[in-house]
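User: Here's a protein and a ligand (D-malate). What would the complex look like?
Assistant: Let me lay out the input and then the predicted complex.
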Amino acid sequence: MGKLHDRLAEQAPALRDKIRSVVAEHGGAVVSEVTVSQVFGGMRGVKGLVCDTSVVGPDKGLVVRGIPIADLKKRLPEEIFYLLCTGELPNAEALASLQQELRQRSQVPSYVWNILKALPADTHPMAMFSTAILSMERESVFRKAYSEGMQKAEYWEPALEDALRLLAVLPGVAAGIYRIHTRKGEPLPPNPKLDWGADFAAMLGLPDPTGGFRDLMKLFLTLHCDHEGGNVSAFTCHTVGSALSDPFYAVSAGMNGLAGPLHGLANQECLHFVLGVRNKYHGVPTDDQLRDYVWETLNSGRVIPGYGHAVLRVTDPRFTALHEFGDRVCRDDVMFRIVDRLFNITPQVLKEQGKVKDPWPNVDAVSGSLLYLFGLTEFEYYTVLFGVSRALGMCSQLVLNRLLGTPITRPKSVSTEWLIKAASGARVPATQGGSK
Ligand code: NMX
Ligand code: MLT
């Protein structure tokens, strides 16, 4: 057993006691109310979920276990995983132990390659990624232990084992998907001398004479790690995991949510948008041209990818971190300059339009242009990169939920008729969905 396991085992009794006593002492306290608009509006702002791995403040952005993401950008993704799980950054010994555990589990089973190669050539890389994760479900030790009658207090241990297995193979699986999908050649094997992020960058097989691409990948994997519990992929993963479906089922399900254009696929859409600008104006347009382009997009009923957020009300600090990276390595690159100009123009236009609650850029607004610069030009693939990183958050949330014995997710739905009656003050019978 590694140091991460041992630390979680030490923390488990106090964490469980804390939840028990919060419920015992404050179980009846009201912390959120729900309006009809929220019921019909994607539950925006309704506080009905707990997630301790990270929180997203509307005016702060991502804070991982009390540490703003901007202060974590030099950390390795493995360190972030340990932090997400335990609330502590690992010391050198704990980090080495976790890296060793990942290396020991990093061999991608050969059947995964057979499955991926058998898929039609136009299968989206996110469908390949989710399929690959699901295909490894047969390896779940959680499912096996559950079927053998494991006790509830033990659930987290095989969940952690599955999480480690999954995280260990994901860089190899994701890089292999890139190579198969883009016909770049056979998947490359892991290199045990490299850390998780550097190994992933190397297995993609792109030329990287300066090490800049490796650095970008490490930063990207750290920044996209988690975004509290209510985003589509985390919530999906949590819900599926709450049925005690094992981490392979749950993470695969979460990835299917990440594949949506309003969520993780926005990074692919963003690059498409920026390329559209570049091609139309044969380079960097003037501010007036850019303003027209943004308006044209809005007037045609489309969203501006990479702008807006369900929670944030300021520029996403993950955008800022990637933008700073771009400013350092490619300030004069045409794509980066377009992103930069868009950052000046788009919020003004969105404010003028007056519809969006958050006119500022999110993480997806800049990442594509940087990946493109380093030769990763196949933008269909970009959401897989997001997925590799976000698996850190999904897995840590799953492990903690099994450790705390979080019950199955099952909110109450009501009919529209019930809502109309309830909202107009009429008494609603319990049999019609009126129970509390
Ligand atoms: N461009 C145009 N319209 C927008 C945008 C945008 N970027 N963002 C929001 N709106 C519209 C939205 O469609 C809605 O219109 P309608 O009333 O006609 O349905 C209106 O503004 C109000 O939406 P909000 O309450 O501001 O946003 P909501 O919380 O519903 O949605 C997003 C949040 C992120 C889904 C939305 O801002 C969006 O679609 N952004 C573009 C896609 C994107 O960048 N997604 C990535 C999110 C981050 N991630 O990586 O996952
Ligand atoms: C995320 O990183 O998951 C996105 O910003 C979406 C969200 O938090 O809703």
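Summary: Strands lie at 54-57, 61-64, 67-68.
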